[in-house]
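Lecture 7, part 2: worked example. A protein chain together with adenosine monophosphate.
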Amino acid sequence: MEIVLSGIRSTGHLHLGNYYGALRNYIKMQDKYNCYFFIADLHSLTTHPHPDDFHAGVRTILAEYLASGLDPEKSAIFVQSDVPEITELYVLLNMIAYKGELERTTSFKDKVRQNPENVNAGLLTYPVLMAADILIHRANLVPVGKDQEQHLEVARLLARRFNTLYNAEVFPEPQAFNFGSDLIKVPGLDGSGKMGKSEGNGVYLFDDEKTIRKKVMKAVTDSGPTEPGSPMSESVQNLFTLLKIVSDTATVDHFTKSYNDCSIRYGDLKKQLAEDICKQTLPIKARIEEIYKDEAYLQTVVKRGTEMARESAQATMKEVKKAVGFKSFLKSDDQ
Ligand code: AMP
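Predicted complex, written out as structure tokens:
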């Protein structure tokens, strides 16, 4: 059975980008594949969260994973830092990752632009840690959004390089996976770019009805089409992209037609969009609230997931160490 791995950082709440770009694929994959889904707490350290806040998000994301439909009976669900083999592999992969190629990744360049005062080595090697997350389970398929395509290319490059350098077929080359034909990019409500946790432009699975309506009604638009068939501005295109994701075809057709014949009222479009988002997310919100409180259940889920993840990670590290020529100087009982 093919192996699937994916994860989401433990900062804040999950938004529609995470849900439609990543989680919905996770859920569909559980029945067909051998799945590992994790909460990426180590990845969130690049921004130096306060120690009191660092782990607070883990429980939130865990509850949101489960409420969205991840099933601990079908998938291994675990926290990245509970599997120390990941960091062990990260160190080894860093030795074959080159500064120039890491500096060229778009996400690194973006982060440097956004936070020039915090360009740490962890930020530069973020794709290497991500490669370790994937390769430690020798995963074949990685359900991620379009924004992660380049990072996956780094993972493939490192897998190939490791296999060639050590003349061993340890790692398969992981591929991005989406059930639809294209990887989904969920736009933000602020007129341009993607919906993101750090962009502050998101609708969260945990938002209540009032908040969702308020956010959607405030979304950036333009002054409206002036003649039939006018091209759409990016901000209006984004609203249509969201509508296509959450609404039915008849609704999308209705607003497309009214845009094209210039009768559209953006207020109506936003009202419908907010309603359709609520229809999708409010039942999930109710489940999040229940699961978040259930400490015993959360512990059982993670205990089982960690055991499965470590078993797979240890088996990989055994092969990795053999290939690299890594031996403990201390003699163990079976040597
Ligand atoms: P992050 O929130 O950056 O940790 O991303 C976790 C997962 O959500 C990754 O698989 C991303 O590709 C996906 N994701 C995040 N934002 C979006 C977005 N706006 N559209 C599509 N997928 C997204």
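Strands lie at 3-9, 34-40, 75-79, 141-142, 175-176. The domain at 3-184+295-324 is CATH 3.40.50.620 (Rossmann fold). Keep this in mind for problem set question 3.
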